[in-house]
């Protein structure tokens, strides 16, 4: 019980810190965040009805370009290594409903560098064979690189997607 006020204040400060780092972005706008140019575009809009309610369905596109001279790299040291922090930026649609298995956010992630690894082994018949398999060697985002992704946001009818951007790097 003694720690309850501390935990509440800590949680509020973390949530406020995350919210404070986010910036609003609108259709066709480009933001500069930490040397990255983030662009958001609405590609298509249509009205849909679900559960007796009307919604607007937006197909959107987001891209990030490394406009700095800094390269982002995560080199993998051993196999299997699980890497979950490859995100660069996150675009969060605050008023998206997530209905019909649609998105509420877009996370743009680093590119995977695939390496072909050759190995030798015995097959079931006892024959010695050599095979090649692709393995992820690293994740990267070099200067000048651009990464794009599309998503579908469903928002209440008459509203446009209310999108905020935050850097994950």
Layout of helices and strands:
Blueprint: H1 4-20, E1 23-25, E2 30-33, E3 36-50, E4 53-66, E5 72-75, E6 87-93, E7 105-109, E8 111-122, E9 128-141, E10 146-156, E11 163-167
Antiparallel strand pairs: 1-11, 2-3, 3-4, 4-10, 5-9, 6-7, 6-11, 8-9
* Uncertain residue ranges: 13-19
Number of distinct helices = 1
Q: Could you report the average pLDDT, rounded to the nearest whole number?
A: 86
Rounded radius of gyration (Å): 22 Å
Structure commentary:
With 169 residues, the chain is mainly beta. It contains one helix and eleven strands, in the order αβββββββββββ. It has one helix at 4-20, and strands at residues 23-25, 30-33, 36-50, 53-66, 72-75, 87-93, 105-109, 111-122, 128-141, 146-156, 163-167. It has a four-stranded antiparallel β-sheet, with no helix packed on it. Strands 2-3-4-10 form a four-stranded antiparallel β-sheet, with no helix packed on it. The radius of gyration is 22 Å and the shape is extended.
How would you briefly describe this protein structure?
The protein has 169 residues and is mainly beta.
Comma- or semicolon-separated keywords:
mainly beta; extended; single chain; 169 residues; 4-stranded antiparallel beta sheet
């Amino acid at each position: 019980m003694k720690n309850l006020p501390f935990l509440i204040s800590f949680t509020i400060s973390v949530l406020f810190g995350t919210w404070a780092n986010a910036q609003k972005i609108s259709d066709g706008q480009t933001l500069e965040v930490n040397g990255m140019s983030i662009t958001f575009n609405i590609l298509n809009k249509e009205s849909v009805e679900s559960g007796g309610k009307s919604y607007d369905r937006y197909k959107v596109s987001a891209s990030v370009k490394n406009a700095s001279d800094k390269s982002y790299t995560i080199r993998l040291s051993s196999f299997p290594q699980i890497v979950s922090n490859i995100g660069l930026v996150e675009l969060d649609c605050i008023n998206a409903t997530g209905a019909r298995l649609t998105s509420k956010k877009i996370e743009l992630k680093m590119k995977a560098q695939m390496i072909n690894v050759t190995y030798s082994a015995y097959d079931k018949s006892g024959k010695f064979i050599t095979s090649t398999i692709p393995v992820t060697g690293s994740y990267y985002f070099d200067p000048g690189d651009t990464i794009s992704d599309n998503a579908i946001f469903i928002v209440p009818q008459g509203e446009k997607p209310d999108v905020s951007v935050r850097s994950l790097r």
